[in-house]
UniProtKB/TrEMBL annotation:
<keyword id="KW-0863">Zinc-finger</keyword>
<feature type="short sequence motif" description="RadA KNRFG motif">
    <location>
        <begin position="256"/>
        <end position="260"/>
    </location>
</feature>
<feature type="domain" description="RecA family profile 1">
    <location>
        <begin position="70"/>
        <end position="219"/>
    </location>
</feature>
<dbReference type="GO" id="GO:0005829">
    <property type="term" value="C:cytosol"/>
</dbReference>
<dbReference type="InterPro" id="IPR041166">
    <property type="entry name" value="Rubredoxin_2"/>
</dbReference>
<keyword id="KW-0234">DNA repair</keyword>
<dbReference type="GO" id="GO:0000725">
    <property type="term" value="P:recombinational repair"/>
</dbReference>
<keyword id="KW-0479">Metal-binding</keyword>
<dbReference type="GO" id="GO:0140664">
    <property type="term" value="F:ATP-dependent DNA damage sensor activity"/>
</dbReference>
<dbReference type="GO" id="GO:0008270">
    <property type="term" value="F:zinc ion binding"/>
</dbReference>
<protein>
    <recommendedName>
        <fullName>DNA repair protein RadA</fullName>
    </recommendedName>
</protein>
<keyword id="KW-0238">DNA-binding</keyword>
<comment type="function">
    <text>Plays a role in repairing double-strand DNA breaks, probably involving stabilizing or processing branched DNA or blocked replication forks.</text>
</comment>
<dbReference type="InterPro" id="IPR020568">
    <property type="entry name" value="Ribosomal_Su5_D2-typ_SF"/>
</dbReference>
<keyword id="KW-0378">Hydrolase</keyword>
<dbReference type="InterPro" id="IPR020588">
    <property type="entry name" value="RecA_ATP-bd"/>
</dbReference>
<keyword id="KW-0227">DNA damage</keyword>
Length: 458
């Protein structure tokens, strides 16, 4: 006697489920978005969800009995990509890579699996959007070894897993998860329920058979990943590939990583031969003119596990049309307003009647507070029309009471700046090194007024 199929009613917009059909979803308010979904209609091992995402039967264990063996990793041959992943591809992991159209997601993965295939590791590239001929033409243009990469044009997740059982690759690429569908879900590919079920299906297979899977994900208009939020929770690693404002470079950022640090950045340059690694990203963002100008300063950010030198430019000009503008590009607009208030209160510089523009050169996005001091110095430099020497750099967080707070990894920031030829450092007093750094003159400061006094003497 056949088992009766379980029925659920799922909203295709937000993923909420109901015991019966409703005309309107009470979670997101959409009408006619709730569809019937068949769960477990086929009684087979492949559809057995009791195994969970881990791909094995659950059992109670003591924490001390769990093996601490290091996970096996596969090197992609691209050090920047490996850095973002935490040191390479972990066997049995699921990586979701998102990005805007044309960012280079497919190109990056094609180059990565080509390097893996050269090592003798079997790989499979599953395309649901492009034809195999288009991918072959791209591989030929990039000069990749076409005889070592297995290809498949398929969108059915059940059929994909059947092929995996036959050829047993170690690395799989799904391009993209939004076009893959499960035969057990009665909705169009790309819907919330299809994306969730297909991702769960593939994740369970990856854990059970120790195969590493890359899923390409689409993004929405606001540059967030399309599909249910469950997708981000299911995968082990989530990375985003984006371009800088001038579109010359690509930045790969880890937003989630169970096997490495979050916030790690990898830098690439796009040309006719594909994505090329940028070994020294600080040099990329420090392409400054020979003649220094007011408002230009350098700071040292900490991205992931390494320092990054970037240039910050500020412009203070007289307001011409009533309400003065405050515009920040590359960092938080509200933080700029806060720093200007601190500058007025504790620095004695009144800028309420001036328009102020601040920009992080190169299109990099600053997400930490260590750039506060550099932003203030840039504004003061432009306000006073004073040129900051090229060999000087600044970092430090500024508090509301005008104090200069220390930042993490101060010693590593100083060493990296010294390696790039910088000779003058204005830093928080708590970050002052105990040993002298050769060729580097350090000015430790505790308050904003002390920092401005040092700047006036440079």
């Amino acid at each position: 006697m056949s088992k009766k199929a379980k029925i659920a009613f799922v909203c295709q917009e937000c993923g909420a489920d109901y015991p019966r059909w409703n005309g309107q979803c009470t979670s997101c308010g959409e009408w006619n978005a709730i569809k019937e979904v068949r769960l477990g209609a086929v009684a087979s091992e492949r559809n057995n969800r009791s195994l969970g995402y881990a791909g094995s039967v659950s059992e109670v264990k003591l924490l001390s009995d769990v093996s601490l063996a290091q996970a096996e990793r596969i090197a992609t041959g691209m050090s920047e990509f490996d850095r973002v992943l935490g040191g390479g591809i972990v066997t049995g992991s699921v990586v979701l890579i998102g990005g805007a159209p044309g960012a280079g997601k497919s190109t990056l993965l094609l180059q990565a699996i080509a390097n893996i295939a050269i090592q003798g590791v079997p790989v499979l590239y599953v395309s649901g959007e492009e034809s195999l001929q288009q991918i072959a033409e791209r591989a030929h243009r990039l000069g990749l070894p076409a005889d070592k990469i297995m290809m498949l044009a398929e969108t059915s997740v059940q059929r994909i897993c059947d092929v995996l059982d036959e050829i047993q690759p170690k690395v799989l690429v799904i391009d993209s998860i939004q076009v893959v569908y499960s035969q057990d879900v009665e909705s169009a590919p790309g819907s919330v329920s299809q994306v969730r079920e297909s991702a769960s299906y593939l994740t369970q297979y990856a854990k059970k058979h120790h195969i590493s899977i890359f899923m390409v994900g689409h993004v929405t208009k606001d540059q967030s990943l399309a599909g249910p939020m469950t997708l981000s929770h299911i995968v082990d690693t989530q990375v985003m590939l984006s371009s800088t404002d001038d579109a010359r470079f690509r930045v790969l950022r880890a937003d989630k990583n169970r096997f490495g640090s979050v916030g790690e950045l990898g830098f690439f340059a796009m040309d006719s031969a594909g994505l090329k690694e940028v070994k020294n990203p600080s040099a990329m963002f420090l392409n400054r003119p020979d003649k220094p100008s007011p408002g230009s300063v350098v700071t040292v950010l900490w991205e992931g596990t390494r320092p990054l030198l970037v240039e910050i430019q500020a412009l203070v000009t007289e307001c011409q049309y009533g309400n003065p503008r405050r515009l920040a590009v590359g960092f938080d607009q509200n933080r700029l307003a806060m720093l200007l208030a601190v500058l007025t209160r504790h620095g004695g510089i009144f800028t309420a009647n001036d328009e102020i523009y601040a920009n992080v050169v190169g299109g990099i996005r600053v997400t930490e507070t260590s750039s506060d001091l550099a932003i203030i110095v840039g504004i003061v430099s432009s306000f006073r029309d004073k040129v900051i020497p090229h060999e000087a750099f600044f970092f430090g967080e500024i508090g509301l009471s005008g104090e200069i707070r220390p930042v993490a990894n101060g010693q590593s920031r100083l060493n990296d700046a010294a390696k790039h030829g910088f000779k003058i450092a204005v830093i928080p007093k708590a970050n002052a090194p105990k040993k002298r750094i050769e060729g580097l003159q350090i000015h430790p400061v505790a308050t904003l007024s002390e920092a401005l006094d040092v700047v006036s003497q440079l």
